[in-house]
Automatic annotation (TrEMBL):
This is Bifunctional protein GlmU. Binds 1 Mg(2+) ion per subunit. It comes from Clostridium algifaecis. Residues 1-229 are annotated as: Pyrophosphorylase. Acetyl-CoA binds at N385, Y386, A422, R439. It catalyses: N-acetyl-alpha-D-glucosamine 1-phosphate + UTP + H(+) = UDP-N-acetyl-alpha-D-glucosamine + diphosphate; alpha-D-glucosamine 1-phosphate + acetyl-CoA = N-acetyl-alpha-D-glucosamine 1-phosphate + CoA + H(+).
Length: 456
């Protein structure tokens, strides 16, 4: 049986009070609409149509790598109208269309597969995914006949007193027989409390024409729709719990999963231990046997096995094996740090490579530099990489000892096996095997204090 999907993502999301289209708000680091598209694909539906309208260009841009088709809904006249806008996509197709919304990111791929099978094997014209909830406020209610069959969906604002008491809600996710759906879309109207063309009205239309309607109840934690910031936080909480559970199942220790924030695409090796208050974002990959002590933010970075990080920020960089970072280090984009390196407290590294076994233990800035292996940076070293107009490069060879409080005025080269005396301001190349001293000689003026009368 042919299956395709339509995802509704044209709505304004008024209740978010945001300049960003609702479906582009992120849950665990990924736009809700991309989460839904990914899950639909994972359920083996490849022919996907996204209905876009509000913030059309932004939504298209955010989904451009997804290889999907678009329908445009110029005015947001309701969910039924949104599907009417996708009629061209459905034209001439026979089979099943599943419908989802870009603001309900918690649906699981297994549930989608179950929905499709239930629909296709049961000979239904429509199947609705529903949930039983304690507080159905705001949702469309599933109205059943005495024999339990579904007769219609009534939106909250259109409910009678009796209907408001129903606690089975419409998730806004369905399967339809394509031809039955297309026929009944012609018959929906907008004389309801919101003056909108509701997709939900299709159910009653199909029922009245004698078609078979099914409902498949699933846990509310898969159907939660995001209409407000509060619901966005709730959806993120549920997603985070799933992500963290998955890592723990794969052998990662999370000391406190409730305060560990890991984005959807992050990969972590087994036997890594993560303490509270770590935020691990984007496409970060952490190797095995690492320890992340409390308080770091790591984004789009690769950290190899056995490395220890504490209270630091690491962005778009690579860190090798058995290296230590922090506390309070700042690794800025395009940095590549080797194996068994030490990056200590208050060290900032920007767009630089640092080779294996080099130690930069404290209070140092390294920018636009290429640093060899086995070097030792004294406290307070500054790579002076900016001349006021442009950034310049510093090259430091292997086994260099950079004395405390050295300035390396770029562009400059320090060759292998060199020493730089503490307090030097290096402006010229330091030859291999030499000691460089670049500071004024000390002068002692004996008795000066007494001559000046400054003694106490
Ligand atoms: C909808 C359902 C309701 C269900 C609830 C579940 C209808 C009429 N109501 O209500 O029964 O319980 O979802 O979360 O379908 N959209 C468009 N174009 C439009 C309007 C909406 O593309 O003109 C999209 C939105 O971007 C959103 C989705 O459809 O992704 C749902 O729209 P929303 O306005 O949030 O519907 P609800 O009021 O939540
Ligand atoms: Ca909604």
């Amino acid at each position: 049986m042919y299956n395709c999907a339509i995802i509704l993502a044209a709505g304004e999301g008024k209740r978010m009070k945001s300049a960003t289209p609702k479906v582009l708000h992120k849950v665990c680091g990924k736009e809700m609409v991309n989460i839904v598209i990914d899950v639909v694909k994972k359920a083996q539906i490849d022919d996907i149509n996204l209905v876009v309208g509000t913030g059309l260009e932004k939504v298209k841009k955010a989904t451009e790598l997804q290889n999907i088709q678009y329908s445009i809904q110029e005015k947001q006249l309701g969910t039924g109208h949104a599907v009417i806008c996708a009629k061209n996509f459905l034209k001439g197709k026979k089979g099943t269309v599943a419908i989802f919304t870009g603001d309900a990111p918690l649906i699981k791929d297994d549930t989608i597969k179950k929905l499709i099978n239930f629909h296709n094997e049961g000979g239904y014209s429509a199947v609705i995914l529903t949930s039983l909830v304690d507080n159905p406020y705001g949702y469309g209610r599933i109205i059943r006949e005495e024999n339990g069959n579904v007769s219609k969906i009534v939106e909250h604002k259109d409910c009678t007193e009796e209907e408001l008491k129903v606690n089975e809600i419409n998730s806004s996710m369905y399967c339809f027989d394509i031809e039955s759906l297309v026929d009944s879309l012609d018959k929906i109207h907008n004389n309801n409390a919101q003056g909108e063309y509701y997709l939900t009205d299709v159910i009653e239309i199909l029922k009245k024409s004698g078609k078979k309607i099914g409902a498949l109840p699933i846990p509310f934690e898969e159907t939660l729709g995001v209409n407000s910031r509060e619901q966005l936080a709730e959806a993120a909480r549920i997603m985070r719990k799933r992500v963290n559970k998955n890592h723990m199942e794969n052998g990662v220790t999370l000391i406190d999963p409730c305060t560990t924030y890991i984005d959807l695409n992050v990969k972590i090796g087994n036997d890594t231990i993560i303490y509270p208050q770590n935020v691990i974002q984007g496409s970060t990959e952490i190797g095995k046997n690492c320890i992340l002590y409390p308080g770091s933010r790591i984004e789009d970075s690769i950290i190899k096995e056995g490395t220890i990080v504490q209270s630091s920020v690491i962005l778009e960089s690579k860190i090798g094996e058995n290296t230590t970072v922090g506390p309070f280090a700042y690794i800025r984009p395009e940095s590549v740090i080797g194996n068994s390196v030490r990056i200590g407290d208050f060290v900032e590294v920007k767009k630089s490579t640092i080779a294996d076994k080099t130690k930069v233990s404290h209070l140092t800035y390294i920018g636009d530099a290429e640093v060899g292996s086995g070097c030792n940076f004294g406290c307070g070293t500054v790579v002076v990489n900016y001349d006021g107009k442009k950034k310049n490069k510093t090259i430091i060879g292997d086994n260099s000892f950079i004395g405390c409080n050295t300035n390396l005025v770029s562009p400059v080269k320090v060759n292998d096996n060199t020493y730089i005396a503490a307090g030097s301001t290096i402006t010229d190349e330091v030859p291999e095997g030499s000691l460089a001293i670049a500071r004024a000689r000390q002068v002692n003026k004996e008795g000066w204090i007494y001559k000046k009368g400054l003694n106490k």
